[in-house]
Write the structure tokens for this entry.
Amino acid sequence: MVSDVPDQGPETGLTAGERLESWKEIAAYLSRSVRTVKRWERLEGLPVRRHLHRHSSSVWAFTSELDAWTLTRQPQHQFTATPQAQATVSGEPAVSQFPRRRIAALVAVSATAIILTAVAYLAFREGPSSPPPFPARLAVLPMVNLSGDPREEYLSDGLTEDMIAELGAAEPTMLSVVGRTSAMHYKHTQKRLDEIARELGVDYLLEGSVRRIEGRIRITTQLMDARTQRHIWAEQYERDSSDILSVQNEVVRAIGRAVSTRLTGGRNALRVIPERRSRDPEAVHLYLRGLYESNRTTAEGFRKAIELFTAAIERDPSYARAYAALAATYAVSSNYGMMPVGTSHQRGRAAALKALEIDDTLAEAHAALGTITSDYYWDWAEADRRFRRAIELNPSYATAYHRYSFYLGKMGRFDEALAAAKKAQELDPLSLVASANVGVSYFLAHRNEEAITHLRQTLDIDPKFGYAHMCLGLVHMRNGMVEPAIREFEAAKVLMGLPNVDALIAYAWAQSGDRSRAEAIVGSLDDGAETPRATPYHVALVHTALGDRDRAFSSLERAIDEREWFMGMLKVDPLLDPLRSDPRFGGLLQRVGLTP
């Protein structure tokens, strides 16, 4: 199998020792004659490449591709019946006095015997009860930016994220893809690939690099079997830089074929992934830069991401992925004080619906719409349908499970919420948010000790993760452990700096009986305060702890008027338990669309 590709010189993204420059070098590497390797290339698809504009004998090959080809051919060489058969299979000439046709007959019989013996051996070794390990787990490691320009990081990071999303949408019975947060944990790592594979619990690792030079983009990728430490596929693509997503789609399909062949011997194949590229190269670059900015998870990053996604859409109004990314960014922007929740969620809903109008198979758009529908519109049945559709379209999309677990918790479906949270963590094992949310699911399910254990495990990974401190404080409050709760809330305040954490501290002081401290804090957080105030929902929590029901219900009414997403917690939040016996509480539940 000869690939005609442009002569790319020594700069391939691989080391010199991994590129063989002639038939002689290829033959020496495989310990065979030049005649044999030429026959293998002609009849059996040995991956040899020819330089364009040169003599046909000028060839080269990657050792990683030769290794992968050898693996697929290996079972045919494990058993030999006769010296003649061994020589025939290896391609070396055998000394014989038989006529040519007699030799051919013996070769056919010997080859058949070899194959049947190999099949019998493999069947005995594996046994009828040892099916292929489906689904295989794959980690897409951060693509390396080889341009030498830090401003090009958005390109390598964006392609990594897009690759994860596209592969995650492949056939779920065959492939499970590790989430972005865990994959990006290994950016600039010095760890060996076998260490990474062991930490992530994956079967395969995809690594690669991106380089853009003078309007051209070069992507080098290789797929490694984590168990054998062998490369099973490698390829290099060079295109015009306007063709980024086309190259990506080509890479995804090639990986799908490689993994499918490795696992099933070609009996099954990953489904064809639809093209989702923009026709406008500038729109693609704006979109990738937007992904880079949104992944900074800061108010400034989200603000820039919205600008970039909007600019990409202006360049190409049919760019569904840009609309989906814009919707997802709007869905979280109000949490960072960037804009009123009504503005962010109405704009986000419009963007998500537009994305689905163009391409209704985008899991990201369904998940964003599920979040917005749940948090702002309180259309619980529609939100459930959107989350489940997102998971159906991309079973490896950890964010969909993460958001769905929140929704299920609000509905009081605690076992399902815990299962979804655990699935999100399984798909994104190094995500602190995914880990902490398993603890939150235990908390909502009234399994306090398990919640404490899991949240402490999260803090063992990163003691500066403020969200886990805040959640741990809530569990301590439910257990009546006020002082430990205050310590956790204080730590969260330092790390997060959110007014809502101040409200939780005030709640804890009120529970401890220190009304003066609680009232002083809530006075600075309620309406009319000059400093950024806590949400009316959190102010209501403090009034509940102080025993002031009228002011608590007044704050909850304001929360409904402002359509706070926290109102979705009304049915299950244990901090509001003292209000549940009041007839007014049932009215609030009805207004939010939750049954008493």
